[in-house]
């Protein structure tokens, strides 16, 4: 293409985005539908002085991520659903120890081995912590290959800003779709110096690097003395609260809408086409798309919802709809929330969403 | 004469030093530290070989060697 | 608490030299380990090796889970906690991210040879330039004396009340022999901490292992046969005797792999 865009898959966009965002290490274990990420990284990182390790398992890959993150080095892993489940061990430790890292989850169908088709069945796994104890990942949900590229910059910055795992939650469609991507880093992209500055207060490097007499540092999640774990959890809770400043969402055709579709990721993208079709037919429908799933754009959703009807569309058996209902709790008597699920593994088009939207629109 | 000093508050009374001393000069002292562990004492000629200190799991023994001699071969 | 007289005694007098004291990297505080536990010896030897080679200021410890979970309290080096068994994977991440650092794990038998067997073997096989210190005391200490992968046949533990049986409960896993067979391993040695002679050898092994890491030769591994008087239900002296009489016959001491000469020569040829 002569407009500066390159034709690549979402997976490849993730790899280029990570590299351009300053990622120095990749650790991963192959799993469909995200294999283009490790394949691209195995070439891109060594070419650029970085490190690529094909781990023996997702358990190991996430533990390597913990290790690299503890040194204040931008690092990532990627996997899909059942592989991400194995990584929860280290993600919980990273949250507890305040260690940054970026995790890309290109969701596939579940439960269990499921299938390799698109799914949003890991919404809960991503936004409710996923591992043991009280912890949260910052979760970004791209819906295009371009966003796969762009969101990697945000993911690494957020990981280092909060010293916490950040998950980029795509699915088989986002991962495999091939489209034009502009490989243009944002102006505020962090440099190696930027990451070093953010990690300076806590990173491990050997105490000698901090000058003579420097105290050794320790990153840990275990707090046995009575009250010390409570203190730790309060600190983490405040941090998760502070993440709300970075909440993000999209509204489309919501101003005069009678019914607003709430959808994220690839379903939001398909829903937009359905909403467009219905608008052409004169139906007053709109789209609200959470871009960050944790923090969830509750306030924005409440503002948009007012006394309108909402239709949550997601490719699972009902997960984000719970957060939508929680967000609107105080307005429950004035708004109504209905739900339309697409079963994991199904490939859908806009036409598949038009009828359910119309049905919801015609309901009293 | 060489000598050893017990850092008594570090001692856990395990007596591995008693067993390790080739000169058999270490014995329980019949006294207890604040942790309630019986501490050790020496009686006899220390060669400064440091076997007790090497064996001690708690780094509770400091060894001073007599520079004038008595060094083990 | 030392009294005034003993403070005086802690310093060398006329004609005396201090020939044994704690090395700077060993934190000078009492440990949480039981009386006669060999973790304290192992901590001291690792600290001495780091100090003698001048590595402490760029060393990073990866702690494990088990009695050694709080090992970071006793080493004056940067440290990170690892999920149970993943220490060699965490160490891989650190060494890849910070190739100028000296990275070592300190793991017990459950951590390294049961829950973390895959991570240990694969890090070794990749030739990760890290050093793994493996404490084998044939029992799970922290959780109260359950069967370890290294528990001897017939050994009674709280989960093998009739003694460990080969079929059904498995035989003791020989980690040094396994490590010795992996191409990525630069150095693998099994030592014991039951006698002064063996402790001296263990120190040499640790120096060799860290030297391999300095030279970038690959994964280095030192297994230390250690006593757990509490969970063996033996006094510390008898526990030491058990190491020489029961453990060493099953876990022979020695070097199982050492590529230092070979790799030096291949460099010369290249």
Structure description:
The complex is a heterotrimer of chains A (364), B (73) and C (270). Chain A folds into two domains: 5-197, Thiamin diphosphate (ThDP)-binding fold, Pyr/PP domains (Rossmann fold); 248-362, Rossmann fold, CATH 3.40.50. Chain A contains 13 helices and 15 strands. The longest helix of chain A is centred in the middle third of the chain and has 18 residues, at 145-162. In chain A, helix 11 packs across helix 12. With 364 residues, chain A is α/β, with parallel strands linked by helices. In chain A, strands 3-2-4-5-7-6-13 form a seven-stranded mixed beta sheet, with helices on both faces. In chain A, strands 10-12-11-14-15 form a five-stranded mixed beta sheet, sandwiched between helices. A two-stranded antiparallel sheet of chain A has the order 1-8. Chain A has helices at residues 10-20, 36-47, 58-70, 81-97, 123-127, 145-162, 172-176, 192-199, 228-242, 265-280, 298-305, 320-327, 350-362; strands spanning 5-9, 25-28, 51-54, 75-79, 101-107, 138-140, 165-171, 178-182, 218-219, 249-252, 259-262, 285-290, 292-294, 309-314, 336-341. Chain B has 73 residues and is α+β, with helices and mostly antiparallel strands. Chain B has a single domain (3-64), classed as 2-Layer Sandwich (Alpha-Beta Plaits), CATH 3.30.70. In chain B, 14% of the residues lie in helices and 30% in strands. Chain B contains two helices and four strands, in the order βαββαβ. In chain B, the strands form two sheets. A two-stranded antiparallel ribbon of chain B has the order 1-4. The longest helix of chain B is centred in the first third of the chain and has 5 residues, at 16-20. The mean pLDDT of chain B is 93. With 270 residues, chain C is of the alpha/beta class. Chain C has helices spanning 4-9, 39-52, 87-97, 109-115, 117-125, 166-169, 175-180, 196-215, 229-232, 236-250, 260-269, and strands at residues 16-20, 59-63, 78-81, 102-108, 131-136, 139-140, 146-147, 185-192, 219-225, 254-258. In chain C, helix 8 links the parallel strand 8 (185-192) and strand 9 (219-225). The longest helix of chain C has 20 residues, at 196-215. Chain C starts with a helix and ends with a helix. Chains in contact: A-C, B-C.
């Amino acid at each position: 293409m002569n407009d500066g865009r390159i034709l690549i898959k979402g997976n490849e966009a993730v790899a280029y985005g990570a590299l351009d965002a300053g990622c120095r290490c990749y650790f991963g274990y192959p799993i469909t539908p995200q294999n283009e990420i490790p394949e691209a990284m195995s070439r891109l990182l060594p070419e650029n002085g970085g490190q690529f390790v094909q781990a023996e398992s997702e358990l190991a890959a996430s533990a390597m991520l913990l290790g690299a993150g503890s040194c204040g080095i931008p690092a990532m892993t990627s996997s899909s659903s059942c592989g991400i489940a194995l990584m929860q061990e280290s993600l919980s430790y990273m949250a507890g120890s305040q260690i940054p890292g970026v995790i890309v989850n290109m969701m596939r169908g579940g439960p269990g081995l499921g299938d390799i088709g698109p799914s949003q069945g890991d919404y809960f796994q991503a936004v409710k912590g996923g591992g043991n104890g009280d912890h949260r990942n910052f979760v970004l949900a791209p819906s295009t290959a371009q966003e796969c590229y762009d969101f990697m910059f945000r993911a690494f910055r957020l990981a280092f800003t909060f010293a916490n795992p950040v998950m980029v939650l795509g699915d088989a469609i986002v991962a495999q779709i091939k489209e034009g991507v502009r490989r243009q880093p944002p102006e505020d992209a962090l440099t190696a110096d930027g990451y070093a500055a953010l990690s300076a207060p806590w990173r491990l490097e050997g105490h000698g690097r901090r000058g003579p007499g420097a105290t050794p540092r320790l990153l840990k999640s275990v707090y046995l003395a009575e009250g010390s774990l409570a203190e730790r959890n309060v600190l983490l809770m405040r941090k998760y609260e502070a993440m709300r400043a970075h909440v993000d969402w999209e509204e489309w055709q919501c101003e005069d809408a009678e019914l607003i579709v709430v959808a994220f990721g690839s379903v939001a993208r398909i829903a937009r086409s359905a909403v467009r079709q219905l608008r052409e037919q004169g139906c007053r429908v709109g789209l609200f798309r959470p871009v960050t799933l944790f923090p969830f754009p509750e306030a924005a959703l409440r503002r948009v919802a007012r006394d309108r009807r909402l239709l949550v569309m997601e490719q699972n058996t009902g997960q984000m709809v719970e957060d939508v209902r929680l967000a609107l709790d105080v307005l429950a008597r004035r708004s109504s929330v209905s739900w339309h699920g697409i079963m994991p593994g199904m490939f859908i088009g806009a036409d598949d969403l038009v009828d359910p939207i119309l049905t919801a629109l015609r309901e009293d | 004469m060489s000598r050893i000093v017990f850092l008594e508050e570090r001692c856990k009374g395990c007596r591995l030093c008693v067993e390790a001393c080739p000169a058999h000069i270490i014995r329980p002292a019949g006294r207890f530290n604040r942790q309630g562990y019986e501490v050790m004492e020496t009686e006899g000629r220390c060669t400064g070989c440091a076997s007790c200190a090497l064996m001690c799991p708690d780094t509770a023994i400091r060894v001073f060697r007599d520079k004038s001699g008595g060094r083990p071969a | 608490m030392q009294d005034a007289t003993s403070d005086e005694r802690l310093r060398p007098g006329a004609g005396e030299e201090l020939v044994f004291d704690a090395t700077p990297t060993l934190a000078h505080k009492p440990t949480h380990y039981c009386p006669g536990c060999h973790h304290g010896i192992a901590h001291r030897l690792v600290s001495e090796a780091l100090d003698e080679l001048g590595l402490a200021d760029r060393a990073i410890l990866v702690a494990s889970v088990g009695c050694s979970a709080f090992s970071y309290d006793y080493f004056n080096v940067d440290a990170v906690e690892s999920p149970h068994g993943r220490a060699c994977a965490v160490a891989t991440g650190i060494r890849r991210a910070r190739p100028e650092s000296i990275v070592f794990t300190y793991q017990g038998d459950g951590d390294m040879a049961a829950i973390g067997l895959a991570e240990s073997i694969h890090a070794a096989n990749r030739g990760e330039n890290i050093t793994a210190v493996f404490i084998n005391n044939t029992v799970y200490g922290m959780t109260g004396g359950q069967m370890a992968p290294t528990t001897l046949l017939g050994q009674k533990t709280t989960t093998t009340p009739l003694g460990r049986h080969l079929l059904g409960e498995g035989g003791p896993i020989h980690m040094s022999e396994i490590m010795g067979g992996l191409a990525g391993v630069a150095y693998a040695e099994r030592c014991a901490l039951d006698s002064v002679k063996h402790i001296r050898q263990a120190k040499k092994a640790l120096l060799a292992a860290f030297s391999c890491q300095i030279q970038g030769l690959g994964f280095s591994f030192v297994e230390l046969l250690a006593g757990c008087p509490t969970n063996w239900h033996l006094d510390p002296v008898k526990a030491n005797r058990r190491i020489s009489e029961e453990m060493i016959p099953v876990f022979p001491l020695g070097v199982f792999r050492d590529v230092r000469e070979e790799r030096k020569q291949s460099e010369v040829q290249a």
